[in-house]
Amino acid sequence: TETHGTNTETHDTNNTETHGTNTETHDTNNTETHGTNNTEPHDTTNNTETHDGGLGSSEIDAAQIESVDERTALSSERKQAGPELGPEHGGGGYGGGLAEHGGGGGGGLADSVAEPDARTPVLSAPPGVNEEDDAIGASRDEIAQQELRTRTKHIFILTTSARPIYTRYGDECELSSVFAVFNAIMAFVQAAGDELKCITARGRQYVFVQRQNIILVMATATAEPMALLRRQLDLVYAHLLSVFTSNIQDTLASNFRFDLRNYLGGTHPTFEALLAAADTDPSYFLCSVQCVVLAPRTRDVINSILGTVRPDGPTYALLVAANCIVSIARPKKQALHNNDLLILLNFVNSNESFRLSDSYAPICLAQQNSRAFVYTYVSFIWPTVPDVCLVLVSPHGDAFTSLAACKAAIVQKLEEAGVREALKDAVANHPFSVDECGVPGLLHFIYRSLQAGQHIMPRMGPPYDTPTERQRLLHKYELLYHRTNSAGRPHRVMFVMNDYESILVYCTNEFQIFGTFGPLTSKSAAAAACNQLLRWIKREERRLFTSPALW
């Protein structure tokens, strides 16, 4: 029985409302507050920021956790839907693709293209029509349809004048008909005063994002929420700006025939690395970075060294290892946004030429200033520790010589402090094992500190020792993260059970934790284990997280 008041619901003594075996209960009394990376507390005594990992004294109470049993629902979905269907199912469509769309407002589009009938006779070409050209056009259409049907996740970028910019697979010229269709659909919906966000058809989603004169489209057969797919497209757009700056919008507005493909040469590996990482690295949907686990004394020494190189030097100094952060030095009140940091890390690690010699390259950090380049001095400083990289960021295009001298001074101090071997061991043992936490029954976890903008997670061991199982668990984390951060009705505390595992989700204004256990683990046991895990993170926070040195 429920008693409804003005803003609250009263449940039974167990704080659990039961509607049936497959119905979940919601806790709507909590409101999430997102931390920002631009307002961080400063320690005026030693010019080093300190974070507590967002912990405090929070304890998880099992009586306040809502239970979500997905085991029966999952089995019935498999019987009815099959393995390739997404969360929404549509029919009909363009080339096995486009049939219905959803967006804001009241405009609508519902076209279907009839499937060819095998009994329909083949007509010969009318007089004056070149059969060879007709065959070439038909073959291109077949290629386009094949690309849309077979790829799990495809990306298209085009201008509002339907000129191709980028396609993840295939050739832009052969897929010109696809670009034209996407542009026509966008123009049709906009003419009706509506905004096109997503088309769902035959188990596929076509997600649209328009940024002024540039249209980004993702065609995917995954069951990821639309909001997270749009987040991935925003990262792709941020990467595009890192190459051109937002001044490219002015160029496209004044010259609709401008072809960006002529200036994208050599950037395709960076694009592909970003898209691949978005599918395998939780940093991209969490919008946070991961740190290398390092002894507090070693990290303090590195922070101290990076914090002494500021005079007439770089704007930012980063020591990076294995695509994770070791240490950052930056000016006060000029934090590096995590979106920019993710783009910068991908830029450094996806260019193999940077490993051959010290390099100096421009990049636009759009969250900081989308209309200007900064210049990065990239050096993999030790051949014996190939994954450790020093990145110095400067606003000046002629600062190579001064940054080279700065790098030499930093490396000399690091050598004198004897941190090379410590970094080598840390990289070799990264990421850490879940057994180090000492929590019985814990299979895996992700802990995200909202204040620090950083997260930690151990390596995936059994039963997540195959690519398929690892991808499935990451996809589950992604769905749960979306539910905890949905704008409409976020779920702040959940215990989700399915056929493979049980996941406890606990979110506060300071941190979010996703703890994974076996499928038979009870809610009370999972809550006790997560409380033990939180105490371990509190003890080890100086090893797990980094605080920037401030200039």
At a glance:
By secondary structure, the protein is an alpha+beta fold. It has helices spanning 71-81, 131-150, 176-191, 226-244, 247-254, 268-280, 283-286, 296-306, 338-349, 400-417, 420-428, 467-484, 523-539, 541-544, and strands at residues 3-4, 9-10, 66-69, 101-104, 153-159, 164-167, 195-201, 204-211, 214-220, 289-290, 316-321, 324-330, 359-363, 374-379, 388-394, 442-449, 454-456, 493-497, 502-507, 511-517, 549-550. Helix content is 33%, strand content 20%.
Which strand order does the major sheet show? 3-18-19-20-16-17-10
Mean pLDDT across the residues is 79
Radius of gyration: 26 Å
Beta-strand segment tally = 21
SS element count, helices = 14
Structural class: alpha+beta
Task: Classify the helix fraction into a percent range.
Answer: 25-40%
Poorly predicted tracts of residues: 1-46, 73-137
Distance between the termini: 60 Å
Which strand-content bin applies to the residues? 15-25%
Which descriptor suits the 3D outline?
globular
Largest sheet: 7 strands, mixed
Break the fold down into its secondary structure elements and pairings.
Elements: E1 3-4, E2 9-10, E3 66-69, H1 71-81, E4 101-104, H2 131-150, E5 153-159, E6 164-167, H3 176-191, E7 195-201, E8 204-211, E9 214-220, H4 226-244, H5 247-254, H6 268-280, H7 283-286, E10 289-290, H8 296-306, E11 316-321, E12 324-330, H9 338-349, E13 359-363, E14 374-379, E15 388-394, H10 400-417, H11 420-428, E16 442-449, E17 454-456, H12 467-484, E18 493-497, E19 502-507, E20 511-517, H13 523-539, H14 541-544, E21 549-550
Parallel strand pairs: 3-18, 10-17, 12-21
Antiparallel strand pairs: 1-2, 4-7, 5-6, 5-9, 7-8, 8-9, 11-12, 11-15, 13-14, 14-15, 16-17, 16-20, 18-19, 19-20
